[in-house]
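Reviewer 2 asked us to include a model.

Predict the structure of this chain.
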Amino acid sequence: MLDATTALVMPDLSTPAGWLPIVFVLVMALAMLAYVIMDGYDLGVGVLLRRADNEAQKDSMIASIGPFWDANETWLVLGVGILLVAFPAAHGLILGSLYLPVALMLVALTLRGVAFEFRVKARAEHKPMWDKLFYTGSLLAGWSQGFMLGHLVTGFETHWASQLFSALIGLCLVAAYCLLGSGWLIMKSEGVLQLKAVRWAQASLWLTGAGVAAISLATPWVSERIFDKWFSFPNVVMLIPIPAVTLALFVVIARSLKRLPVRLAQGNEYGVAVPFACTVGIFLLAFYGLAYSLFPWLVVDELSIWQAASSPEALMVIFYGTVVVLPVIVGYTVFAYRVFWGKSTALKY
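Predicted model (structure tokens):
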């Protein structure tokens, strides 16, 4: 591994070779954040599908994500595409180190997509099989993404402790997706399913917290540079709001989930969006903390964004394409959520 104090050579940020890699790493980061949040809740709904009591509840859960789930994966394609074309050196190193979990994720996402389409067209006796496959695909996709996150944090170490840590982060990310999915169902559903979603969120909350804490502790542990960024003075004082607000959001979610059953029993839906909104806030803060820790390295203390970037000429061509494509994706996403906002209706085809 290179010495972080000598390996990082920052080019002139006023030149395309200096600012274009920053632009693309920001776009890539925002794309991955959008994917984790938007596809995260529908992966969570998929994992929670097996906990539904009957087919009517399962149909309602599927209906709540039906208009969104496939479009949400567009952000994953955008993020990985930028990694490939803008940072080819990092793409080869990262995906080479994560070959097996990436392959598992792709198989799981394919399985999930096939199951989603077939469950609504299958005969009654075959529908439970497709439900199980949709659950399995959602679970494996979420776990593999968490495993990759754990590996990224530990600098792609292959030691057994790193493997175990990554596997545990995989479980924690599945719980976080279930928390997002439960919050989504609390907003989109009614009646018994809505109350069950509250209980599912309560069951997922603290494992999610454990995952956030584990990542927060492990990230400065693996790199002296990251440790200094967080705990040197005055950085430590200025960064205190990040863990403080994150903890406060967990407390708000716990209080909200405790009060919601009473309100919902009275027909009062005040605060139904609080668990989902606060969970999104936790994801945003966790993502910001991770980005602050890693920047400007794509691989911890080994490969910076400038070392991994394509030539400035190639980046400029890609930049023009991104300027056209990104607003289209954002516009379609906003339009879709605007059209299908509100309570989900009965599943019909």
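Residues 16-48 form the longest helix (33 residues). The two ends are 55 Å apart (CA to CA). We have added this to the supplementary material.
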